[in-house]
Amino acid sequence: MKKTFTLFSALLLAITLSAQDTKGYFQFADKDGNIIADGSTIVRNVPEMDDFGEMLIHSGLFIKNVAAPNGTPVWLVSDITRIDNGSLQVCFPQNCIVYNRVSSNKSDATTITAGEQKDIQSEWLPSTYGECVVTYTAKPLEKFGKTYTENEGPSVTVHYILQDPAHISQSETSNSVPVAIYDTQGRLTSTDSRGLRIIRMSDGTVRKAIR
Question: What sign does the CA torsion over 33, 135, 104, 97 have?
């Protein structure tokens, strides 16, 4: 009985140590390879237009292999805790999947070469002003026999915001007011026109907005 207990304890310890080791296999990084600390919250509030004329806000996140042996699988878990409108698109590692409600979602597994990083290709496609909050977790997989075990990995929360300039507080604008509005071609346009607009403020700053 003692021998069985000792073997069980040793196995449990080995699994625990393995999980601790694999948590540092992958990290989230920006496009330049700078590591984003585990547990961080970052704000993304700059909208862009894609090739199809749709507005989106990129996560700007990559998964970087910092210590995992080549061939170690990893998958991405996207926990959506708030989505006021529109949809969240995740194209990691290849196939694009669209979500439009609070949910927890898991991608297919992929491998990343040691020292390399892969764009998670995730963005919020808002249909109007609002917010979307998503926690992304990179979970390495470890093989035991013919099965894979999911281990703990780093997480980063992205707070997407598309704010109506008319609702920005006085303290945020420093009493600045809009002085000119342009379309995406740089042409002056009216305040009631629709689509992505570039707003030049009286203090010299520039804002993007959707109308």
Answer: negative
